[in-house]
Amino acid sequence: MKINWSHIVEGWRNHLIPPQELREKIKQVSEERMAICRKCEYNSVNAPQHTWLNDLYEHCTNCGCPLIAKTKCLSHGCELKRWDAVITEEEEDSLNIDDNE
Asked: Distance (Å, rounded) from C-alpha 4 to C-alpha 77?
């Protein structure tokens, strides 16, 4: 399991304080991605072996990412190629710069 922290930070930012101009896009993309993840064998809710971690939060057992954040990370796709990025890393960086101004 290897969590990519930059993806998760972006996802949590988009979950907690999404950029105004992307709120609807984030919601739409996250719902579409979560529907895909809920059918995936690597989703913790579908794991054949139940662990305490599965009860704690819904996550990908392949990469370890919490799905509430990972599905809201617009500049990166699923490592298993289940879904793709919808914006570039450069576009994401420009949003971060705009938020800090």
From this structure: 11
